[in-house]
TrEMBL record:
The chain crosses the membrane at residues 748-768. Signal peptide: none annotated. InterPro entries: Ig-like_fold, WD40/YVTN_repeat-like_dom_sf, Y_Y_Y. Residues 789-858 form a coiled coil. It comes from the Bacteria. It comes from Natronoflexus pectinivorans. Keywords: Coiled coil, Membrane, Transmembrane, Transmembrane helix. Gene3D superfamilies: Immunoglobulins (2.60.40.10), YVTN repeat-like/Quinoprotein amine dehydrogenase (2.130.10.10). This is YXYXY domain-containing protein. Pfam families: Y_Y_Y. Residues 683-728 form the Two component regulator three Y domain. The keyword Membrane applies.
Amino acid sequence: MKHRLIVNFILTSIIIAISTNSYDILGNPPITHFTRNDYKNASQFWDACQDQNGNVFFGNNNGILIFDGARWDHVKIPNHSGVRSLLATSDHRIFAGAFNEIGNIRHNSKGYYYESMMELIPAEYRNFGNLWGIHEINNTFIFRSFSYLFIYQEGRMAIIEADDQFQFGGICNDLLFVVDSNQLQIININTLQTEIVLSLSEINNEEILKILPTSQTTEIHLLTRQGSLYLVNLKFNNSSFIQKLATQTFQPPYISAVQSKNGKLFIGSLSHKMHSWIPNGEYYTPARHYSNLQDNTVLSIFESKEETIWALLDKGLDYFDPNSFLTNIFKGSSVYDVVIFENRMYLATNEGVFRSSEKQSNNSINQIQFKKVANTEGQAWSLQVVNGILLCGHDNGLYTISNGIAQKIPGFSGVWKLYPVVNSKNEYFVNLYNGMGLISIIDGEINPIEFQLPGFEESTRDILTDESHSYWVCHGYKGVYRIKTSSNNRRIVGVEHFSEQDGLPSTFNINAHWWNNQVVFTTNHGIYFFDKETNRFKRHEKLNALLGDDLNIRQIIDKDGISWCVIDDEIAFFKTEKMDSVIRDPFLSLKGTLNQSMECLVPYSNKGVLIGTSFGLYSFDIEKYEKTTTIQPGITISRLIFQIEDSLIIHHIPDPLNTITIPHKATNIQFFFNAPFIRDKATIQYSYWLEGQSHQWTNWQSEASVIYPHLKSGEYLFHVKGRSLSGEITNTAVISLLVEPVWYASRIFLIIWTLSGITVIYLIVLWVRIIVKKEKAKTQLEEKKHQRILEIELEKIKLEQERKEILKDKEQLESDVVEKSKDLANYTMFIAKKQELLIELQDELNNIRQQAKSDNIRSKILNLTRTISVNLNNQQQFKLFDSNLERVHKDLFDLIKSHYPDMSSKDLRLCAFIKMELTNKEMASVLNISVRGLETARYRLRKNYPEIDELIEKSKNMS
């Protein structure tokens, strides 16, 4: 409760900016100027109309210009005369009136063209001069020249000839009014009868410029070229003067006028450009003077279907939206603050302070001129009304402003603004570049108390109350301070410094703001608040969820349920209670124009906000914005241009639902599009997407066309949408495009190719079947061959395995033979040794027996020698030996027997011994013969068998 009382005190102690409930702000809408450089044609314009697609037709001295919102087309009249009148009819025709020419403008796939209707007019009436007006009543069309009225209905043309001249013609309440013979008349278009309303002498012979309806069908208003407004009673045929429509800066003669759909009256003059007037009962009050038109003479005024205004000038065309929600109040300087004081607007700028030259009235601020306040040259930061005194914070110090003159309060320099002291009704802090001063304002007198409070010397540009004698101060680079003043506010007694360690994301670009009954701190990374329980800064979850924390929120102001904020370099707003969406689009045109870190947003009531920029002051009206955003403007794909070799093909698109077919040879395929119903035509941007070639929309661009050097054969969908920097967004237009295939890929050839392909496929299938059959037979043969080869190979493998086994067995046998040969040789040697031993033993026993004296001993020795003799001649043992010898030396015996089949076993045994390479002595021992006998046996062997040595040697090699 204490904190809320402090805040209420602050808000009621100082009136900043503007009285929020007192004024409507009417600035100048942006005006777009079109010159000869744009439309490349004659610059004097006479009349305009608009078709159902939003295209605007202008009559000028060289025919008709058509503007689709992006490009200009030109249609000439057959006799090359200028077009003075145009009408868009209820059945979507465009009638044109020129010099001795009546016709209509048509459109087909080749573009716009003129079709004359002169054959409907008898030859004697065809020299009628210029047609100055075309009107419609219930599908009846009236063409007016000075000499005739041509009434066209259902293909027939009726003609009324003037008694003098038809100097004026107009429609009001479905009645046709004309001026002829100095009389205002009503003509019945069915009976062609004339009724006189009044003589122009009753209105001082003034020339009628416009007939305006009133709230009564029996009454009309007459606006004259002399600026008079009269009320005419059609029942009693009398008139009364209402008022003179003129101001100090806008004077007759008037030459054009139009009443808009919302009742505003726009008047164009011969020398003073254009002015608008607002209806107020029977009267009209002045609204805006459009002094920034490019020419003084406004020949005609046209209101479009989207309620924008075209000024047809003697030299050029101007266009603006009178209902623009973003208007300009002041141009030329950077605006840092604005305030209304004594019914004048004051601006703080980089060049000083400016104030409006005229006092405002009727609770309305509109179209004002500004003059610089004397003695304020240089950078002015703030304007505040305190206790009925206007004060200015200035680079040079603190000023009071009265009657357009500023006076400096001595002792201060580098002043940002004033800030009220809590619990001290008449005291104010002076926020300085380096600290704070203190003043009191009592009964209109300003008394400096302290030029700088001791204890704090940082900049105090951004300051907010925390609690009694405690204030938040934000520094752009050093973070946040909380300072505490003494009880009498004469000095700083406490300073707390907060930085990253206290929960802030950084110390840069921190600002304190009062939002929704609390202090919030904006940073480069979201919005924070101070939690007194933890003595730390915490993220404001609701605001960060809505605004994001990746951009710098540099301002946030809550006023009458609407929160205005600056996000980086863009302005946005949202409903404080709902917090459902952030609206930025209407401020796109001001992107990048704000004074960084010194943004000026001054809400007024719940209607809008004043915006200070580096180029001036703007006003945003939220009510007008919400009205204009209820209708979504359309966008049109108007034409397609492509090139085939050296020829340029132009294809206008009357019906976007039909698919456009282009040859495959087409190059430089260019789509043209436009958004004629967008109100802010000067800032239109487009985004497009060619489905079938790309997968995403392009970035926004101002060019109203796109060119593709070449497209492959196939089907495409071209999508395009538009927007303006005022926040308008169109719907999406789509058109289907078919790029034909090459001739050999066309439909007929595709059929031919298909049939040929089927035939070829059939023949190929048939041929393949034959080939497959042959190949199958060949394969079967090959398989049999391969099977036979496989069998042979298997047989070879088997034989090889058997051979290997045989060889292995042979090797084993040979190994066995070798082993047995060795065993046999050893056995033979053993027998030889045994025989030798036995012989020696026998000989020794015989010697012993001869020497023995006892017969018994000689008998026993004799028995022993006989036993030895028996063993030496053991035939069974020799048979066994021969048998083993034959098995071991089978190859030798087989070889010898193949040559000498009759060789005895004794000789075969000798051959084996020779192969075994036994010595003669060893052989003789084994055979139980003498060495001499052995030699004789070997001699006889060689003699009887001459090849025996070769056979033995051969047997050795075989083994």
